[in-house]
Design goal:
about 425 residues, alpha+beta, SH3 type barrels, Fumarylacetoacetate hydrolase, domain 2, eight-stranded mixed beta sheet, five-stranded antiparallel beta sheet, about 15% helix, binds calcium ion
C-alpha cells in the first residue's frame, strides 16, 4: 500500500535515526518531514523549511548547496513551485531529505542551516487558490440535524450519494496564530426581529485539509486513482463559524458570511507519503456509490488520524478522522466530476470531524448542544460558544512506520473582540 516507492523508499533497515539527534519517534521525526515557510531575524524574506524535531532545516539554503537541480523550487518564498512540480519531484526531494538527515557526511553542511523553531515566525505556506469545504462526517451531520431539526431525517437525501460541499473564501485563509476578529452580521432573533451586530454564537470546526499540487485539465475529471498524482499533502484546518449569521443566511444557498471571515490552517503541510502507515479502509457505504465514487477494491484512503482540540489549553475533544464517510480521493473525484479543473494551491477540507460520544465532537455547537448543555471546562468555566480572548488549538497525530507516531502540527487562533 506504500507510496514510498523508487528512490524514496527506505530499506528494511531504515530506522529514521538521524545525526541531528531527533528521535525517530518524535512527532516531527524523519518519518514526517513536513514543509512550511518561515521568516526569522536573519531572513526577513520568507524561506522554505522542513521541520526536523524542534528545529527547522532551511531548505532554501540547503537545496542550493546539495540539490541545485531542484533549488529553484525553494527560492520563491512559498511552497507553490514545489506543489506544482509533481509527484516525481516530491518523491525525489523527500528521498534526498532522508539521505541528508540520516547520513552524517551531510552534517557539516546542514548543521548551520538548522534553525530553532522557537526563533522563527511561520507564514502562510502556499498561495491558496480555490477553497472548498466538504461535509463528510456522518456523525457531525447527524448531531447538527438533531440540534436544529429534531424529529426530522438527519441526512439530506443526497448525502450518501455524493460528498456534499460548499465553495469557501480562499482570500481569508490565514496561517495558524493569526488572531480572529469576532465577525458582525445579520441574525434573526427568536421573536422574528432581524438585527446587525457582533456574532453571539462564534464556533470552531476541527477539520483536515488536503492541498492540491499538480493542476488538472479543464473538462477532464480526476478519477479516484488520480488522487496521489494531484494532491501533495495534508494540513489541519479550523473552519471558524458564526452560527447565528450562518443559520440565518444559509437558506437556500448555503454558508457564506458566517464562514468567510477567516479560516485558519496549520503552517506545516505533511506530504501524503508520510501517511502510508495511517491508511485504513473507510467505513462501508450504503448505498454503493456510483462508479466514479466507488472505491470498492481500490487502495484504501481512510486515514487513521486522531485530532485533539484544546480551548485555552484545556483538552475538550478528540475527534477521530478514521470514521469519515467520504475519503479525500472521493471528494476530489466529485469536485472534478463535472470537468472543473484543479489549480496548484487548491485547498479542500474534510468537514467537521466528529463522533457520537461527547468527547469526540468537533465543534462547540455539538459540544454544548447549541447551548442546551454548556461545555464545562477544567477551570470551572462554561462555554456555549467562544468568548473574546478564547484560544482554540487543534493538533493531530497518526500512526507512522514501525510503531512510530507522526504529528500533523497545530492550528491555533485567538478570538479578538468585534
Ligand atoms: Ca466546515
Amino acid at each position: 500500500m506504500t507510496s514510498e516507492t523508487g528512490p524514496s523508499r527506505p530499506g528494511a533497515s531504515w530506522t529514521g535515526a538521524s545525526w541531528t539527534g531527533v528521535p525517530a519517534e518524535h512527532p516531527f521525526g524523519l518519518h514526517t518531514l513536513p514543509y512550511g515557510v518561515f521568516t526569522d531575524a536573519a531572513h526577513p524574506q520568507p524561506r522554505i523549511g522542513v521541520a526536523v524535531g524542534e528545529a527547522i532545516l532551511d531548505l532554501t539554503a540547503a537545496s542550493a548547496a546539495l540539490l541545485p537541480e531542484h533549488a529553484s523550487l525553494f527560492s520563491g518564498g512559498s511552497l507553490d513551485a514545489l506543489l506544482a512540480a509533481g509527484p516525481a519531484s516530491w518523491s525525489a526531494i523527500r528521498a534526498a531529505l532522508r539521505r541528508w538527515l540520516s547520513d552524517e557526511r551531510h552534517a557539516a553542511v546542514l548543521t548551520p542551516l538548522l534553525v530553532p523553531a522557537t526563533e522563527v515566525k511561520m507564514q502562510l505556506p502556499f498561495t491558496v487558490a480555490d477553497y472548498v469545504d466538504f461535509y463528510s462526517c456522518e456523525q457531525h451531520v447527524t448531531n447538527v440535524a438533531q440540534i436544529l431539526r429534531p424529529g426530522q431525517p438527519a441526512l439530506p437525501a443526497n448525502w450518501r450519494h455524493l460528498p456534499a460541499s460548499y465553495h469557501g473564501r480562499a482570500g481569508t485563509v490565514v496561517v495558524s496564530g493569526t488572531p480572529v476578529r469576532r465577525p458582525s452580521g445579520q441574525r434573526r432573533h427568536p421573536d422574528g426581529t432581524v438585527t446587525f451586530g457582533p456574532s453571539t454564537a462564534l464556533d470552531f470546526e476541527a477539520e483536515v485539509g488536503f492541498v492540491v499540487g499538480t493542476p488538472s485539465t479543464l473538462g477532464r475529471a480526476v478519477p479516484l486513482s488520480g488522487f496521489a498524482e494531484h494532491v501533495f499533502g495534508v494540513c489541519l484546518v479550523n473552519d471558524w463559524s458564526a452560527r447565528d449569521i450562518q443559520f440565518w443566511e444559509s437558506v437556500p444557498l448555503g454558508p457564506m458570511l458566517g464562514k468567510s471571515f477567516a479560516t485558519s490552517i496549520s503552517p506545516w503541510v505533511v506530504p501524503l507519503a508520510a501517511l502510508d502507515a495511517a491508511r485504513i479502509h473507510p467505513p462501508a457505504r450504503d448505498p454503493r456509490p456510483l462508479p466514479y465514487l466507488d472505491d470498492t477494491g481500490a487502495e484504501p484512503w481512510g486515514l487513521d488520524i486522531t485530532l485533539q482540540v484544546r480551548l485555552n489549553e484545556m483538552l475538550i475533544s478528540r475527534p477521530l478522522f478514521r470514521r469519515m464517510y467520504w475519503t479525500a480521493p472521493q471528494q476530489l473525484a466529485h469536485l472534478t466530476s463535472n470537468g472543473a479543473s484543479l489549480r496548484t494551491g487548491d485547498l479542500f477540507a474534510s468537514g467537521t470531524v466528529s463522533g457520537a460520544a461527547p468527547g469526540e465532537r468537533g465543534c462547540l455547537i455539538e459540544l454544548s448542544w447549541n447551548g442546551a448543555t454548556p461545555l464545562r471546562l477544567a477551570d470551572g468555566s462554561t462555554r456555549s460558544f467562544l468568548a473574546d480572548g478564547d484560544e482554540v488549538s487543534i493538533t493531530a497525530t497518526a500512526p507512522g512506520p514501525a510503531g512510530s507516531t507522526l504529528g500533523l502540527g497545530e492550528v491555533h487562533g485567538r478570538i479578538r473582540p468585534a
